[in-house]
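A.,

Following up on our hallway conversation. Structure tokens first:
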């Protein structure tokens, strides 16, 4: 997502990948500011995708509907939700106070970069649910053998 952000800001992938820290031809762009924004976007994407990874990898075979994280005494883990909220607060602590922005090299990021990883996370959750369904349907199949 950070490379996509670079591309949207006019910094081609090849300049970053093969430039080795030298951004030739980009003298008129504030490359360091764009780099800080892209790094902050990457951090937010990492945190949000881990929320969905947490929900997807709670069990090997059972669906999130068969093993819900809440509302079922036998399977609930109510510590997950405060942990998700805590990680959301950490995003704001690292990215938004001006004093920490200067120290850590982070910046404010547009709200769209909070929702795009949520869409990717839902895709991850859907793919993992499909994998779990296939493993339950064909327990001796190839997918069941290569799955963790």
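Then the amino acids I'd put at each of the 148 positions:
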């Amino acid at each position: 997502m950070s490379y996509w952000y670079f591309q949207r800001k006019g910094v081609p992938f090849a300049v970053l990948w093969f430039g080795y820290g030298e951004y030739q031809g980009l003298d008129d762009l504030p490359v360091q500011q764009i780099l800080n924004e892209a790094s902050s976007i990457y951090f937010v994407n990492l945190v949000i995708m881990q929320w969905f990874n947490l929900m997807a990898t709670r069990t090997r075979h059972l669906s999130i509907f068969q093993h819900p994280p809440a509302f079922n005494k036998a399977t609930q883990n109510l510590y997950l939700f405060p942990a998700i909220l805590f990680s959301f607060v950490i995003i704001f602590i690292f990215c938004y106070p001006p004093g920490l922005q200067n120290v850590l090299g982070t910046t404010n990021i547009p709200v769209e970069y909070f929702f795009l990883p949520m869409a990717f996370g839902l895709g991850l959750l859907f793919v993992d649910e499909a994998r779990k369904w296939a493993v339950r349907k064909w327990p001796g199949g190839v997918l069941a053998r290569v799955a963790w």
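The chain has a mean pLDDT of 88. Curious whether your intuition agrees with the design.

B.
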